[in-house]
Amino acid sequence: MSHTGRDPATEHRHEASLLAGRAQELRALRETVRTSAAGRPSLTHLVGESGIGKTSLIQALTGTDFATPILVGSACGAPLERDFSFGVVRRLFSDLLAKIDEPSREALLDLAGRPARLVVDDASFDTRRTSTYATHHALHRLIVTLSERAPLLLVVDDAHAADAPSMRFLAYAAHRLRDRPITVLISTTDGEQPYAEEPLLALTDQAYELRLAPISGEAVAEVVHRSVGSASADVVAACTQVTRGNPFLLTELLRVLGPGTPLDELDADEVRLLGSPAVAARLRARFRARPDTEALAHAVAVLGDGAEFDIAADLADLAPAQAARALDTLVAMAVVPNSHPLGFTHTFVRNAVLDSIPVGARLTAHGRAAHLLRAAHAPSEQVAAHLLRSGSSAAPWACEELRRAARLAAGRGAPDVSATYLRHALKQPSSPVEHSAVLCELGSAELSYAPHEGIGHLRAALAAATDARQAAQAALKLVPALCMLAAHEEASEIADTVLADLGDEDPDLAWRLEAAAMMPEFLRLSTVPTALRRVERMGRPALGDLALRRAQQGMLATMTAWRGEQREKVVRCAREAIRSADQNFFRPPSYYTLFALARTDASAAIEEVYAVADRIAEGSRWPRATAIMAMAHGLRALHAGDLHEAVRRFASALASFEDYGIDVRGDHCAVTCAVWFTDALVSLGRLDQARELLARHMDVADDAPETLEHTFLLYARGRLRLAEGDARGAVHDLEECGRRAEVWQMRNPAVLPWRSRAVMAHLGLGQRERARELAGQELELALAWGTDGVVGVAQHALAMAVGGGEGHELLTAAVARLAASPRRLGHAAVLLDLAALPHAHATGDEARATLHQAISLASECGAEPLVRRGEQLLAQIGDGRRKGRRGNAPHGLTPQEHQIALAAARGATNRQIAQNLCVTVRNVEFHLSSAYRKLGVKRQGLGLLLLAGTAPQTPKAPEALQAPEPAGAG
User: Fold this and answer.
1) How far apart are CA 190 and CA 546, in angstroms?
2) Which domain-ending residue is among 621, 655, 670?
3) Of residues 757, 766, 750, 760, the one with CA closest to residue 736
4) CA atoms within 13 Å, Cβ hemisphere of 768
5) Residue 960: per-residue pLDDT
6) Is the dihedral of CA 118, 120, 125, 130 positive or negative?
7) Angle 750-756-761 (CA atoms, 0-180°, nearest 5)?
8) Dihedral through CA 442, CA 443, CA 448, CA 449, nearest 10?
9) Confidence (pLDDT) at 68
10) Co-location of 3 and 113 in the same domain
């Protein structure tokens, strides 16, 4: 195992790698030598697979500084020297006699006898010139004489390659050690055929065997970190996996990586693909006398893990008996494990062998492997993997095999792998029909991760279609994709043309295409009537195909929810749409049912449907499906008033849309996400963020294009303008939003609560009549839909519009409705307005209780504007002992912030403060965070500021107009 041509630093790393994890074995060998030096001779056989570290361990042992002087003789068997008589013995005695002075040396050789001198000194010595026994006896006498001077350590590395006379002598001497202070250590490598088998067996039979196992994962990590610096746990695990703790392989792997490789940036999968020319050369040397073994190893390397023996034998052009012998040799050499199916023991060795095969032979081998595997009915993806590696070689069956593999890959959620197979399928011989089908399948797969490339291939598939049905299949994929890019006119033109060509040839296919054609029409205001007529036609037939029924149910659920009709029907359609669904569920119109269902407040159905959809999205690994599910969960959180969770989900969804590689301005689904995101940010009081978000999706001043996504954006901008105090701008946006929504039959306030927002904007302008009109319409529509939350919000809006005693009654009714719903934000808003009524101050205790409840709810939601307004009202009412006095706190804090911060400054925990004030811990945390921000201190600094009263006053910002809090929009 000697290595040449290394610089000292590399050599040091090499030695450190090979010795890592060997402390226990080295201690055992050193103890054996010490014991033998005391007069108890030993014979040890060190054995293990190639590269396991035997030589390094021997070198460490022979370099040990023992307490007593020990004469060391070491030699190494070598294939090129095994025909030299007594070559190993000569090397042993050369070491033993090297440090003895010349007179003593001559005396020792004279005492041993002439045969010993001939072996040690005569380079022309020939065993035929003297009897073997006489030679062995003389050499033994020399060893005994030397052991009387000092204990001996005789080491023969790679004894399987040692010359036969030397091994016969060692076997002879081993039987005659008696009580001499002599240690004999020999090493062999698994799977190597001994040159002198009989004497080697005689030695190993009487020796203690010390087998070296692979080093541990901890030792591998130590070697990696010590040799090349820091590396991630995944990279270390990959190093362990591909080398299986073989020190030599680990050293060569680290050499391939190089000392300058930034391992902390290296991907573990890259490590698993590496090979080494040095490892391949070493293996070639071991295979030199075994051509059949090398051929089988090449075949197994080409086939990869899980290779069948008969296929590997065919690929290697070996008869079964030849292949069996070759396999047994590979097992003995630990190149492959003793199991079936076949594979390499070390991935790193497999990579090295594969890389060592010349490129032409390797391409041919992969092509043959594909043929053999197909004939054996192997899985299509296994066949396809070899077709990919066979270069441009073609077969008449290859295209269909690659398409079958692509469908399997797509089914397990790997569209990128599917597309790789299909690109190769385009290079295979195929008919025009098959060529168009491949283009369509490729475009569909690419839509999942590279939409622009996918659209290009779908256009090519449509152009290459050989009949109307094939054109319709391509159009079904292309039209929705074009809608994502806002190419509505092109999408409509394609759909209408293909529908006209298809006629009555395939009613189910026509229905699908009608659904696709409806989308670009529905997204534009001018063509909505045409789209709605299509919807009516599509809702009538009783479809037999399950996938079509699912799509139909998704569409029906959406339209029913938009119109605010038959909430139970929406729940029923949603459950039907998800039944036995696959990843096609996340193509329109099926997935719309998720958003429709969220408006029903039917928690059991929502849990059931969302759980199934989550599993489908996770299995599809499609960024768009992931984004849609994040939107759905975000909408649900927004309805429940969990604003921080809603923001987290919407931000994740927008990031997925952007990663998908499309312009989110033109994707109606991404724009809807931005609308809901804006709604949540405004409720949190983050107006700057909301403004920035809208600017990324809406770059027009007043005249928004008449598309569905811009209608939603008008609502979001109106909401933002209302919060900023721009009532006139809010009225403009919200009324225009409502005008457009009516064309789309989007009347349900649970879907788009523009009227509630517009009521407050009109009130801000003194336009009470219009406010009453809109609020009345809102309540009528809300009652038709029937959920407590929507009805409560509508009652709240009407109460603000009518005022007086009627308004008080409506607010009271709204409180009851919202308390029974999951809409905590709307509940907090209506409680604030109820407590703010002038006559409520006459019953201060009741008003204060209402305000505390409202503040607690708003704080749990994270709605800081509502919290601030509640605290202002609480300060105006006073604490009950000083009526009429304004309870302003110092330092710019609100009264409740000041009260909570003082308690914290005095050492109370958050839980204790919550219990004392009858609020939630989250409420306490919210107010403390606000106090820290205003005061510019952490908790430990509160005492110095509040108890000493040294902090400056901070002016308060004016509050924005308040409005009833709907459940969310879009």
Assistant:
1) 61
2) 621
3) 757
4) 5
5) 35
6) positive
7) 150
8) 90
9) 84
10) no
Residues 53 and 193 reside in one and the same domain: yes
Which residue from 688, 742, 691 is spatially nearest to 717, judged by alpha carbons? Answer: 691
Residue by residue, DSSP assigns 863-882 as -HHHHHHHHHHHHHH--SSS
Query: In angstroms, rounded to a whole number, what is the distance separating the alpha carbons of residues 688 and 695?
Result: 11
For the cut 70, the answer to whether the pLDDT of residue 15 exceeds it is no
Residues 181 and 249 placed together within one structural domain of the fold:
no
Quick one: 241 and 175 in the same domain? Answer: no
How far apart are alpha carbons 358 and 367 in whole angstroms? 14
Which token pair is 728? 């006139």
In this structure, the number of other CB atoms found within 10 A of the CB of residue 720 comes to: 23
Is 231 within the bounds of a domain?
Answer: yes
Spatial CA neighbour of 967 closest among 758, 763, 821, 853: 821
104/177 same-domain check: yes
CATH number for the domain including 120? 3.40.50.300
Which region holds residue 586: left if phi is over 0, alpha if psi is between -120 and 50, else beta? alpha
Q: Where are the alpha helices (DSSP H) in 316-397?
A: 320-332, 347-356, 359-375, 380-388
Question: How many Cβ atoms are within 10 Å of 217's Cβ, its own excluded?
Answer: 15
Alpha carbon distance, N-terminus to C-terminus of the chain: 72
Average pLDDT over residues 575-579: 85
Are 200 and 236 found together in one domain?
no
Same-domain status, 122 and 194: yes
Residues with Cβ within 8 Å of residue 890, at least 6 apart in sequence: 898, 949, 951, 953
| Buried-state track 269-300, b at ≥16 Cβ within 10 A, e below 16 | eebeebbbebbbebbeebbeebebbbbbbbbb
Q: Is 868 left (phi over 0), alpha (psi -120 to 50) or beta?
A: alpha
Give percent of the chain above pLDDT 70.
88
135 and 247 inside one domain? no
302 Cβ partners below 8 Å, 6+ apart? 315, 354, 357, 362, 365, 366, 369, 386
Q: If you search the block for the tokens 């001779």, which residue do you land on? A: 41
CA 228 → CA 16, 216, 267, distances in Å? Answer: 12, 18, 15
Half-sphere exposure in the Cβ direction for 150 (13 Å, CA): 15
Of 881, 885, 877, 832, which is closest to residue 855 (Cα–Cα)?
832
616 domain residue, yes or no: yes
- Count the domains in the chain: 4
The residues pairing with 185 across neighbouring beta strands, listed in sequence order, are: 44, 155
887 found inside a domain = yes
pLDDT in tens, 893-941: 777 788 888 888 878 888 888 777 767 777 788 888 888 877 777 787 7
Q: Is the residue at 267 inside a domain?
A: no
Contact between 690 and 681 (Cβ < 8 Å): yes
Domain, as residue range, for 222? 1-21+215-258
By CB neighbour count within 10 A (0-12 exposed, 13-18 middle, 19+ buried), where does 658 fall? middle
- Say whether pTM exceeds 0.85: no
Q: Looking up tokens 């904007």, which residue turns up?
A: 761
User: pLDDT grade, residue 666 (50/70/90)?
Assistant: low
Q: Last residue of some domain: 596, 621, 646?
A: 621
